[in-house]
Every structure is written in structure tokens, then in C-alpha cells.
Amino acid sequence: MKPQTFFSQNRSVFWFLLSLTIFALVVTVMSDAMGNGMISTSFVKTLGKTLCLMLVAVAMDVVWGYTGILSLGHMAFFGLGGYMIGMWLMYARTEIIVTESLRAAALPPTPQEIHESVGTQIFGVVGSSDFPAIWVFAHSLPLQLAMVVLVPGLLALVFGWLAFRSRVTGVYLSILTQAMTLALSLYLFQNEAGLRGNNGLSGLQNLPGLDDLPQSTLSIIFFWASAVALGAGYVLFAWVVSGKMGSVIRGIRDNEGRVRFLGYHVESYKLFIFTLTGVVAAIAGALYYPQAGIINPNEIAPIASIYLAVWVAIGGRGRLYGAALGAAVVSLLSSWFTGGGAPNIPLGVYTIQWTDWWLVLLGLSFVAVTLLAPKGIGGLFDLVSKRHPVAISSSPAVGPDVGARRTVEGEEEK
Amino acid sequence: MKTLLEMSGVSVSFDGFKAINNLSFRIGEPEMRAIIGPNGAGKTTFMDIITGKTRPDSGTVIYGEKSISLLKMSESEIAMAGVGRKFQKPTVFEAQTVRENLAMALKNKRGPFDVLLYRKTRAGAERIDELAEIIGLTDSLPRIAGELSHGQKQWLEIGMLLAQDPRLLLVDEPAAGMTPAEREHTTDLLKRAAQKHAVVVVEHDMEFIRRLDCRVTVLCEGSVLAEGSLDHVTSNPEVIEVYLGR
User: Fold this and answer.
1) H/E element holding A200?
2) Are the C-beta atoms of B245 and B65 separated by less than 8 Å?
3) A14, A104, A377, B167: least surrounded by Cβ within 10 Å?
4) Higher pLDDT, B242 or B214
5) Which residues is A234 bridged to in the sheet?
């Protein structure tokens, strides 16, 4: 037997990384900052954001496509990651501006005065000037970067522990995750939550201390950072879902009771996957929002997580590149249709305006993919490769319970 | 022969229906035991209670030298304590290969981080080859389990049970869907396992049970009706009445 390496067993990793590198290089040489300027800075940002969405979609595929947990709350972790990095960006930048303006004063300002003045600047919009307790680390980049991982990670851990230990599964778990993201979003809408309520955090596209760098250069830096994060996340998840771990989590997806009787503590595995993907979603969010420039509680509304599931479904569940492609195609199409890129279709009596009709089109595509091509966009790769996965015989319409439909008519079980 | 598992006074009811009614049962190690009974006698519920799937309303289930109570343990803890189960309907992971199915069942550490960092070992691979040989699926190791025939899935499930290296094997209808030659092979396997461990076999096929040549427990309406050798229980008028006579 030939020695098998991780890459030889996971060919898609090589092709994914290669395509990603080529794509990143092409964008760079066509950008304003580094190349001939064929791609505008705002479009570089759109592409960079798309890479972040692809990363969170890959995480979603691991939790849904591989482990079978339809989480409709992973964008909450994405948004929280954005909030955590946004706190530092806002604090540090406001601090620089305040220090500049106070320099003209007769007496040099004390650190206390600067801190208070920063508070007034940031929270004036919600009629306050005191820093809430959650901003205690906002002055320090390393601490706040740690919060990017710790806060969403802890939320995922606690939520997952409570949900999984009660053996909440299936659609009930999905509803619970929706409730989580809705509750978080409603909480953040309140000014008392300390994150500027519905104003959210803004000005995140400006990096403190890097005012000399033009946005075109910053956009390329973030684009590359997103590409590296996506590549690293892809390799991480490809490693997690390969080998024995992949075997166990796919077993949990297909028949968690059986996995339990093999001696695996199913809840721990679910919790591990849920938390790991939550943390990666948070990192993706922390890269996304500095490119978007603004974050507000609307970003973690329940619909955001539903979109995430739609991307993964259209891209193809159960294969990481499918999820990544789905996120890229759907989110880019979405910005094309809603950004006025698509021409309106005049029908005489009625004109189809894509800004209104895009969601209908997306909904129809979702239904069509679910019914007609359950393997999604990723399924197209089966046409060129030799992969022929077998259909699983136990269709969901056939139940294990007494009186449930049987695969064979008249067959007696139990 | 020391006692491995002892159930006493166990009752469980579903919506008022008493599936298990004051059931007491003990099995030693090594020992082979066959359980027969009409449909609805509580055979599957009996296994569900031991493996932790169903919690009884009353009674005790004591296991092992340290006399631990299985009622306080989760399904996975019970499995790790050495209770293995083969389901009536073969439930293998159909989307995965035969090798992956066996590898998952192999006796190893079961924590998420142990599994994440698990490295394939030569010993593990040899054990899988050995098991594949026993269950006659050597050539099918790289195949997807969903492609196997019903009988082969039965074998795979038996292989997975053996891979766990359990002390108490609960085997539900192992011979269903097997050819006579395969049945003989199954009997040999179970007998060999029963030389060292405790094996409980639920089976309808009297011929199969006769070949197992072991003590038989007759369940009826959730409690033990008779116990003893096959000839002893089959000559019991009550047993004939409820089970064999029909």
C-alpha cells in the first residue's frame, strides 16, 4: 500500500487551495492598489467579504452537512466576532482623534480625561458617556482579539451544552438556535446592552494608526487576510471531517442512537463541533465587518442564519467546497441583483424589478435545488470525477418506530 | 461462574401498558443464554433497559464485579463498560465503508479529542483484517456498507459487536435472513464468544437455539415464564400454551 498523506486522501483540499491562491493573485494584479485598477476598491471589499462568508459557510457545512445539526444561529457567532473586533477599532480610532484634538488644550490631558472623552464620543449617540463594563478590554488589541474567540466560543459552548444534554434534536434544535440569535439581536438593539443599540458600531473600515494607508491598500490587505483565513479554515475542517472524527460525526448524522451504543458520547461530539464551528464563524465575522465598515444588531437577525443555510443547501451539503461555492455564488448574485446590476425586465403591464424579485428567485432556486438536485452546485463535480456515492436506503420517510412506514411492505420489525 | 448482570424486580410501562412486569434475570460470565417469547413479550424492551435506552419505573440492574447500577449510566457509558448490542434490524452506517464501520466500533478511547487526534495503528488495522476474515467480508472492506446485501449487513453488525470486545453481548435475532451455512457460522461465533463472555441471544428459530445448546429463558408478558434447558422449557405446559402452541 502506498503511504497515504492527508492531501492524497483529500484531493479537494489541494484543488481548493490552488484555486483560492490563483483567484487571490488575479484579484491583486487587477486591483487599484497593486495592479491595473480593473477591479474597484469597493468590489475588492465585496470579494473579501465574500471570502469571509465562504468561510462561515464551510463551518455551517460541517455542523449541518456532516454532523446533521441544522443550526440556524451560526450568524450570531459571526456577528459577535464582528462586534468584538469593532469595539477595539472604534475605541482605538476615537482615542487617536480625541488625543489629536486635546493636544491644542493648555494643559496636556490626563489618560483619565482622554478615556472619558472617548466615551463621550462613542456613546454620545445613545445619550451616555460612560463605558459599559463589557468595554473593559476595548483599549487593548490583543485582549479584544482574544474576545473574538472567547465570547462567541463561550456562548456556543453554554448554549450547545444546554441544548444537546437535553437531547434536543432536529427541527426543535433549529428553532432553539433561531431563538438564540433573535434574543441576542433584540438584546443588542437595546441601548443598555452597551453596544450602541441600533446604531451599532461604525467607521470600522478605518484602521487606527494606519490613516496613511489608502482604502485601496487596506482592502487588499483584508482581502488577503480573508483568503488566508478561508484557506486555513478549509484545511482545518477538511482534517476534522476526514479520518475517524469524520466517521463518527457522519455516523451521528445518520443514526445517532447507534453511535451511542458503540460507546461514543454523542453530546460531547455535537458540542465540540458546534463550538468549533461557532469560533470559526466568529473569526470570519471579525474579518468581515472591518471590510463592511459597520455592524448593527440587524446583522444577527434570524434571517441571516437562514440565508447561511440556504447557501450551503444550494452549494451542496456534505462537501466543503460545495458550501464555499454556494456562499460565493449566491451572495455575489445577491449583491448583483439587489445592487441594480441586473437589468429590469419590462413585461408591458408589469416590470420585474430585481431588487424586489430577487428574494423570490432565491426562494424558488432553493426549492428547486432541494427537490431536483439535492447535491447542489457541488454535485456538478461528480460529473467529472469518478465519485459515485450510494444512496442511503433508509429514507427519512421510513421510521424506526412501531407502526412507522417500512422499507418492505409487511416486514415485521420489533 | 460469577454473576455479570443481575436484574431484579424491574418494571416498565408505556402509556399504561406494562411492557416489563417485575422481571428478574441474571447471567454469569462466561455464559450463553437464549431468550424466547411471543411477540410483545418484552424481549426488545429488556435489551433497551440493559443498554440504557429505556429507563425502568422500578427495580435494579447491577453489573460487573463492582456491582455498579446501570440505571444511572448513559448509553455510551454502558457501552464503554462492556455491554455490546446487535440490533434486530441491521443498523450499520450505510454511507461509510465496511472498514470505517469496523474502525468506529474498535475498542479505543471514545472522547472527542482522542478521536480527533487518533492515528491509525498497525494493531488496529490487523484487528480489522482479522474481524473481516471472521465475518467473511475481507474483499468488501473498501465497499460502502449500503451496497451490502441484507445478510452481509448482519455480518458486519456482528463484526462491529465483536470489535467492541464487550463482556456482555446482547444479540437480537442474529440468524434472520441468513442461509443455513451462515447460521452455522453464526452459532460457532456466538459459542466461541460465550467461552469467555456473557452472551444473550434473542431468537425465534428453535433449530438455531437447539444448536446453541444453552439455558433458555422464556419471556411472556414482560416476565419470566420458565427457565432451563430447551427440552425442559418446551415441555412446560404453560410455555406450550403461550408460545409454542400457537
Assistant:
1) none
2) no
3) A104
4) B214
5) none
pLDDT at A413: 41
**What number is the average pLDDT over the span B160-177?**
90
The SS3 assignment for B180 reads: helix
B36 lies in which domain range?
2-244
The 10 Å Cβ neighbour count of residue B214 is 18
A interface residues, B as partner, C-beta within 8 Å: 240, 243-245, 247-248, 250-251, 254-255, 257-266, 268-269, 272, 389-394, 400, 412-414
CB A185 within 8 A of CB A304: no
What DSSP state is assigned to residue A3?
A: P
Name residue A49's amino acid. Answer: K
Based on the number of CB atoms within 10 Å of its own CB, is B67 exposed (0-12), middle (13-18) or buried (19 or more)?
exposed
Q: Point out the residues of chain A with pLDDT beneath 70.
A: 1-4, 385-414
Quick one: cell of A200? 451599532
Give me the residue from B85, B94, B111 closest to A261, CB to CB: B85
Burial A109-122 (b: 16+ CB within 10 A, else e): beeeeeebbbbebb
Tens-digit pLDDT profile for residues B44-79: 899 999 999 999 999 999 998 889 999 999 999 999
Compare CB distances from B116 to A240, A259, A391 and report the shortest one's residue.
Answer: A240
Q: Which residue has the cell 437480537?
A: B172
Element (H, E) at A187: helix A170-189
Q: How many domains does chain B have?
A: 1
CA distance linking residue A90 with residue A6, whole number of Å: 42
User: Residue B78 maps to which CATH number?
Assistant: 3.40.50.300
- Spell out the residues 6+ positions from residue A131 whose beta carbon is closer than 8 angstroms to its own: A115, A119, A123, A138
pLDDT digits (tens, 9 = 90+) for B121-163: 888 899 999 999 988 899 999 999 999 888 888 889 999 999 9
The ipTM (two decimal places) reads: 0.88
